[in-house]
Amino acid sequence: MLHSLLFASFDDPARQAWYEAVHDTLQAEANAPPTVLLGNLVLGAEEEEIDALILRPHNITVLLYAPGGGQLEIPATAGAWQLQGAPLPWTGTAPNPFAQFQRQQLAVAYWLSDSLSPEPVRAEQVSGIVLFAATVSFDAGVERYLRTLPGNTGHFQLLSQLPHLPRRLQQLAHPAVALTEADFTSWWQDLADNSASGETPEVDGTGQGYWEQRARQLWRWLGADDIPHDAPYGGTTVVAASQEEKQRLEQLRQQVREELLQQRQEMEAREAERERSIAQLRDQLTQAPPATAEVTDLQARLAAETREKQLLEQAFQASRQESAARNQELDARIQQLGQLIQQMQSQPPTPTPLPAPALPPAPSRAQAVAAAPAPRPAPSRPAPPAASPHKAPNLLPRQSAWQLRWPRVALLVAAAGGLAMGAWGLVHLSNKLKDPEPSPQSNTRTRESVDQEEAEATAPSLSDIQPDTLTLDTDEGGASREEDTIQESAPEVIPEQEPPTPQEGEVMDSTTTLPDDI
């Protein structure tokens, strides 16, 4: 079954007739698999114009229209092709059909990866056929040049007769391409709806998936395209930085692709020149007589050229692998940034907690006893939204959800106060029970002991009050000095004095020492 869609009529009548002939050929094919034919397709930021695109369960083929007919010669893959000794009337942006196919190959693979296939489509899975408008005969070196093209493993072919197109499509089937009829039907219907509404397919570089595309179509069907988008949640600076990083990675990926394409073209030119040199050496080798020094020299040069060709092919393969790894890394980073931006835009705003109420000054004890105010309830606070099970972590700092609960604090303080009062009462009661009231006998004994202690304190004697005296004999100097020396060296002896006699009406304190047993 054939599903065809022409996005816009061709300006050239010959090209329009060529597309209709391709459509009729595919329509008339017997036992044909499900096929989608797209015409006049424009893809990519560089607006690559694709004449026709054919999709089958195991085919993704680009058709390139080449006007004219006659003898085809390919002097160099990097230059213009020759048709009947004149440059091919090629209207594409590239110098020849093969260079044009390389550009369209990347654009188609990127577009189908975003819109049709759930898995990325590699550029090697997209084949190409140059279909001439008239009968063309090929030069002897055309097939050899096509086989030696770098990166061409038979997925780029030339076709001069339109009836052979179905057989060529079968030959170009790629085992890695596995599309189903359901994918074809729904995808083609979406393209037809978009084309009817005046929209054209674009490659915007956003990595839009299958379900996201369906959601956008439903949104447009509901007529909600004119509703402005909501401002993204989260920090605007973080979202802007992520968008800038994503754009920078997109530019870097485009730059890598352009550099890879330029290197590819340069290597193709060098390889073509090397192939021509090898062909000339082989011709000279076949024409030269055997067993000569020139033949040996030619054989050595031919072996050297062959070795250089092999080294160049190895370098080209390494470059392709490196570029593929870089592209995969860039794609992964772009996808991660896209997911992060979507998570930040779909994240609900974090509620701002209310400020804690100011505590009143502590009242005095009398005021607290006179009028005990009820504990002031804490202000109500909105409950935070329930976290989803697969919610992405928020990059912004979260505010603490802890809050002092005043009713519970008041209850704890009251309980602690009650326990303290009970403990104090028990201690006071136990002290009263342990200490008995003092009896009169104990009071009398206490007074007697006090009087006895006062009696033990004796008054000082006259010998304690009298100052120290020193008697000097001035009659004899030597004797006085000797007595001074003796008195200084000997301990001082205080003579005993008789106790003074009390006069009439005078009462003296007793100097009698009390017994030790008192």
Automatic annotation (TrEMBL):
It comes from Hymenobacter mucosus. This is Nuclease-related domain-containing protein. Residues 348-363, 374-387 have a biased composition (Pro residues). Residues 364-373 have a biased composition (Low complexity). Residues 343-394, 433-518 are annotated as: Disordered. Residues 460-472, 509-518 have a biased composition (Polar residues).
